[in-house]
Design brief:
heterodimer, A: 443 residues, alpha+beta, eleven-stranded mixed beta sheet, two-stranded antiparallel ribbon, 62% helix, elongated, B: 216 residues, alpha/beta, Rossmann fold, 10 strands
């Protein structure tokens, strides 16, 4: 038995008041810690998903919605844009490249996105098995998709119209899995990637169901990809070159192709600028001169974060108040028990305890409560994090991993320790000043 | 062993005490009788080092406790003085055995469970070892308080009205136990009381009155 053990015993001997203090403190800590983690996860996840994307071009509508749907694949798209319009935009000399996206179908609520190989490249995706698609209706799937649906190489499945389960199933048109990506933590983990042609085929097969047309549009697409990959003026040059080389006879053929392009639609275009000047000129140009809308992921994200920030700050204030109340509860509990224990303190002093030892004991009682409250709160927040993660995973296919301590939690610990310290301060001073003789006589 | 010389104490100008000199040899007993308000408890607290006298000197053994301060005084008191109070009090969150261990710890002694068992056995409390003192009967509590006082074998045991709240049967039992246990642990015993029942139990007694202080 010693002073330290006595301090612990004093805390555990009052389960109700200690329990109340602990409950309040751990709730406050858990709330703040949970907010910190959710906030951090969301920001990290979102910021990592906009890498390599300077601008998103899509149909007119809410810019935030466009970003959410095209970059994060969580919202519904704003609509479709003409491939021809998108391609003419790509000829701008300020644009490095543009990745077309075409989506709207899903399989078991995982989105099927038509794009080209630069899309997985942008997220540095590595293939775990198989290869990328080489022709229409071939897909490469993200790690989370493979895990959840159990799809493997060579498996066939049918997409459903719409982004949630229960949409009209495109019967008779099977996708076949050609590749599975390694997990990357990016949005691609949750996607089924295919080429643009697949998406067009599914939705326009009734209109263009001749094999020949398929081949032609395939060729066309390949050409466009090249164009997009090259620099804008290069593309321009190529086009000029084509015009010069080809005679009238060819022009008619090209006209047919142009018709195809006129009909083709994509959902969004992820654009990378060649130089920062693009940021200044292009969004305005797109928004004012075309039927399309340009949105800047960075700008929209910052807007979103500042909105989130208000909610997070509010939650944090509420949680801080809860922590403060718990501090008051610790104080009241210590102070009231001290009034009962004045005689006990005098007894301890009589039997040789020094002022300092008792002072330390009272601080220890406050700190034991605040430290265990903190630990309990962190444990609670991890449980909450798992819950949030499960929720987000089923709702948005977002993974929430890593529950390690973050530096803000260090500050949180410091705050709870201070609360424990200050809650114990007045009781400790009271004990320090105790008049043994008087306390013993009064009892 | 205990030696007090011209000790006086003053709460305030209208409430001051002067005490007769006390000389107590090793292992002997002393009963100090007096009515309420003559400063009995004050004297006891002065001897125990809980109060500082205004004048005079108090020595326990070779140590002048009036010269000790703070931590040293606390440590000395813990090791050399045991106290029994009118109403027994304990550390509420600890069991009886833990209370005794705590007191051993505070005095800087080894925590000796054997010694605790021996003492509790002598007091008939061995079955209450793990009991919370709150749950003991009043007689048991007063005996347990004796256990606290003697556990460290202090040189001096001070008892403040130890029998005031007890009936005759318990009163004599407690006094017997006090005398018995202090003897066994080689301590000296001072009991202050207004309880005239105890007069016959002690050969050595002094009466405390306030006349001296009233003259001044």
């Amino acid at each position: 038995m010693n002073i330290f053990k006595l301090g612990i015993k004093n805390v555990t001997a009052k389960p109700l008041s200690t329990g109340l203090s602990l409950l309040l403190l751990s709730l406050g800590v858990a709330l703040i810690s949970l907010m910190l983690h959710v906030d951090r996860h969301l920001k990290e996840q979102m910021s990592s998903n906009i890498r390599g994307i300077d601008m998103v071009v899509g149909a007119k509508g809410s810019p935030l919605q466009l970003i959410l749907s095209a970059v994060f694949q969580v919202d519904v798209p704003t609509g479709n844009i003409k491939l021809s319009e998108a391609n003419s935009l790509l000829r701008n000399r300020l644009i490095d490249y543009g990745i077309p996206l075409s989506y709207g179908d899903s399989y078991e609520s995982f989105r099927i996105v038509g794009t080209d190989e630069r899309y997985p490249e942008n997220y540095a995706m590595q293939l775990a098995k198989g290869s990328l698609w080489s022709q229409s209706m071939e897909v490469a799937i993200g790690a989370a998709v493979a895990e959840k649906t159990g799809l493997n190489l060579g498996d066939k499945f049918q997409g459903a119209h719409g982004l949630s389960e229960g949409g009209h199933v495109h019967e008779g048109q099977d996708y076949i899995v050609k590749g599975i990506f390694e997990p990357s933590g990016s949005v691609v983990d949750q996607l089924i990637l295919t080429n643009l042609q697949s998406v067009w085929d599914i939705h326009e097969s009734h209109a263009h169901d001749e094999e020949e047309n398929h081949e032609e549009s395939q060729k066309l697409k390949g050409e466009h990809e090249e164009h997009a990959a090259d620099s804008a003026d290069h593309t321009q040059k190529n086009d000029d070159h084509n015009h010069d080389e080809e005679g009238h006879g060819h022009e008619q053929e090209e006209g047919v192709e142009q018709d195809y392009e006129e009909d083709r639609e994509i959902t969004a275009l992820l654009v990378k600028f060649k130089n920062p000047l693009g940021l200044v000129q292009l969004p305005r140009m797109v928004n004012e001169n075309t039927n399309m809308q340009a949105a800047l992921p960075n700008y929209e994200l910052n807007k979103l974060f500042s909105l989130m920030g208000i909610a997070v700050t509010t939650m944090n204030i509420v949680a801080m108040i809860v922590i403060l109340v718990s501090g008051i509860s610790v104080f009241i509990s210590l102070y009231l028990s001290l009034r009962d224990r004045t005689y006990e303190m005098a007894l301890l002093r009589t039997y040789g305890a020094s002022r300092g030892q008792l002072l330390g004991m009272i601080f220890q009682e406050g700190l034991v409560v605040s430290i265990s409250g903190f630990v309990l709160g962190i444990a609670l927040s991890r449980i909450g994090l798992v819950a949030v993660s499960l929720l987000l995973k089923s709702e948005y296919h977002y993974d929430f991993l890593g529950g390690g301590l973050i530096w803000q939690e260090g500050i949180l610990m410091l705050i709870t320790l201070l609360i424990g310290f200050f809650a114990a301060l007045i009781p400790a001073i009271t004990v320090y000043k105790i008049d043994i003789s008087k306390s013993l006589s009064d009892a | 062993m205990l030696n007090t010389q011209s000790v006086s104490f003053e709460y305030n100008q209208s409430n001051s005490f002067e005490f007769p000199d006390i000389e107590l040899s090793e292992g002997s007993n002393l009963l100090i009788l007096g009515e309420s308000g003559v400063g009995k408890t004050t004297l006891l607290h002065l001897i125990g080092g809980l109060l500082k006298p205004k004048t005079g000197k108090i020595s326990i053994g070779e140590t002048a406790i009036t010269a000790l301060k703070g931590k040293e005084l606390d440590r000395f008191r813990g090791a050399n003085v045991g106290m029994v109070f009118q109403r027994p009090h304990f550390i509420q969150s600890l069991s009886l055995a833990e209370n005794l261990q705590m007191i051993q710890f505070l005095a800087g002694k080894n925590q000796d469970l054997h010694r605790i068992k021996v003492v509790l056995d002598r007091l008939g409390l061995i079955s209450k070892l793990k009991e919370n003192p709150r749950n003991l009967s009043q007689g048991e509590q007063q005996r347990a308080a004796i256990a606290l006082a003697v556990i460290n074998k202090p040189r001096l045991i001070l008892a403040d009205e130890p029998t005031a709240a007890l009936d005759d049967k318990n009163c004599f039992r407690v006094v017997e136990l006090l005398k018995n246990l202090t003897k066994r642990s080689g301590s000296s015993l001072i009991i202050i009381t207004h309880d005239q029942r105890l007069k016959s139990e002690f050969a050595n007694s002094i009466n405390l009155t306030r006349t001296e202080s009233l003259i001044h």
